Amino acid sequence: MAQKKIASLVVILLNLGALLTALACPYCPYPTPPSKPPVLPPKHPPKVAPPKPPPKVKPPSVPKHPPHVKPPHPPTPPTTKPPTVKPPYVPRPPIVKPPHVPRPPVVKPPYLPKPPYVPKPPIVKPPYLPKPPYVPKPPIVKPPYVPKPPYVPKPPIVKPPYVPKPPYVPKPPIKVPPYVPKPPVCPPPLPPVVKPPIIVPPTVPKPPYVPKPPIVLPPIVPKPPYAPKPPVVLPPAVPNPPYVPKPPVVLPPPVPKPPVVLPPIVTKPPPYIPNPPVVVPPPLPPIIKPPVVLPPPPVPCPPPPPKAVPYPTPAPETCPIDTLKLGACVDLLGGLVHIGIGSSAKDVCCPVLQGLVDLDAAVCLCTTIKAKLLNISIVVPIALSVLVDCGKTPPAGFQCPA
């Protein structure tokens, strides 16, 4: 409402201002209207238009089709609306308000007086200490100037005289001995296997069914009646003790440190040692190895026919010594496949196999060859020939156990 009154008051003041400006000078003369310019004769004669021809009169139009006459509209019968029946008036049930329950009174805590005002102690400033006297820094002593040693040029590099390469000598072809097939191995006949009869245990009938006893639940004990908790009684509030300020900390006066005087640094240049000339030795002539001729492998004799012996329980063939001792011997045998057997294989393998029987030595070599994952069909013949050189005679037709 106050804004509307202010707006209407502003509009009235604007209208009054416009009216006062209009009535401010009622006796002031009005400005005279400007005079009309004199009418001059036309420079050119006026143009006269030619007379227009008479308008054409159109003949009366005859309608092509007779006018369409609409038939008379039949009168609409009067409509009667059924009377509206209003339902009987049913009064609304009265609104029943719940009874007024007064709010519990607000219990304020007891008034506690404020502690007495204790003024803060004055701030004690440390005593003024004058600045220590100014001590200028010692001058920097530079080492004396040492001139550089005179330049000594390096001696020229003396290259050895050129030695031409010897003529190329092709290697002789390696003679491979002819292939000798192995004799057939005839295993001893196996005795017939006799299986023991299967003994089925007698069937034991099941015991008769015994029903489980019914489950007896304990009686239900009713809960005790609800007992409200007693109100919590708080102890009276104890006022805080008065504030006691801490005493000020008095620092000792600072003691200036004496200046550190460093001795002058004197560097001595190392004596100049010229590099000796590089002398390249002449190249050695190539080493020509003599061709290696492999001896023909010994042809084993065919084994005698096996005798009929009752089937014994076969004893497992195991190596009686540690196979790690034969590792260097087997590595050397694996490298002699394409070269041939020399004295180095005997020197390495014979001391290790010295205390073993012929069959045990062959089994130990087979076990070590399998552990090294070497080709058994190639390395085993070389290993058997080494055993013969060491004084061991393996059985005829020996093969590594599976």
TrEMBL record:
UniProt name for this protein: Hydrophobic seed protein domain-containing protein
First and last residue of the signal peptide: 1-24
Keyword Signal: yes
Organism domain of life: Eukaryota
Organism, as annotated: Escallonia herrerae
Pfam families according to UniProt: Hydrophob_seed
Composition bias, Pro residues: 36-64, 72-104
Keyword Signal on entry: yes
Swiss-Prot/TrEMBL keywords: Signal
Occurrences of domain Hydrophobic seed protein (ranges): 318-401
Span list, region Disordered: 36-104
